[in-house]
Amino acid sequence: MNRWIARWNAFWFPLTSTLPLAGARIVTVAAQLFWFGPNLATHINLATQNSHFSDPQPMIRLIDHLFPRHVFFSAGGLTTVWWVTTIAGVLALIGLRTRTALFVFALASWFWVSHGYSYADVHHREAPYALFMMALPFAPSGARLSVDALLRRRRGLPPVLSSDLALWPLRFGHVVLTMTYFSTGATKLLAGGFRWMNGYTLQNYVLSDAIDRHIPLGLWVAQHYWLCVALSVGTIVFELFYFVSLLLPRVAPLIFLGGVFFHIGLYYVAGHPFYQFILLNLIMFLFLDPDRIPGLLRRIDAALLGPGPEREAPQPG
Asked: Do 204 and 87 share a domain, yes or no?
């Protein structure tokens, strides 16, 4: 039992540099703030043009029970929530009161996703990214590359260069991605068996999406049977064997890049906007391994830390 506990701790909680986590915080928050963030006008239109929710998500159902509808789900209420989201996002991005700001920003982001899906079809593309965002407040995400780190330096306190909690949000994001891909691949096989890989199934899906969304590349792909067979098999192999990235760290970067190009290809062929999956794979590629941290972040961090050699905690192999 002690051996298994030691392995568990070695996987989730090794003593690791806090710099990768700080970089992941900046990329994650910036993308959510400036790219994936809510369109306030759209949400106000949804709330004011509908007298009730068609499929209220759990968070929206809870809020609707606790507060009168006009408090949150009105132009004034949603505008207030939008400003809270934006302010929390800016504070999380610059790293001021980082943990509190990250928690509020992640929770508010959950609110907007839940609200949008309470009137229409529910999709899953935001789920792994939202879970990863909520993991960040429970780690020293503001220990580096942050206003909090600068204030700590001005008070004469030593920088937090490493922590046994610095890696677990990235590990968590990696595991969530693995579970999501495996579930998707297994569902395809359970629902259609090997017929999903017969080429005709993918031809039908791609052709339908390409016609609906006016995608010339999708129309071209759908006309090439053997290419669709190869893409079908490749999709199943990628989704079912993504877990190999957990077992073989040396090949993990290639699998993460494969995930990036997989979703880019899916977008240009069928128009599926899995942008959060693209970015989450890219975050794993850049920050899961401390040795792969971009040099620019290292230089910025060195400037913020001030003169003196930095001693990074080694990453256990």
From this structure: no
pLDDT at 69: 85
Quote the pTM value.
0.91
Q: Cβ–Cβ contacts within 10 Å for residue 309, how many?
A: 6
Residue 137 or 291, more confident: 137
- Flag whether pLDDT at 311 surpasses 70: no
Count the domains in the chain. Answer: 2
204 and 287 both lie in a single domain: yes
Parent domain of 181: 133-141+158-307
Over residues 176-188, mean pLDDT: 95
**Are 106 and 190 in a shared domain?**
no
* Stretch 289-299: mean pLDDT: 81
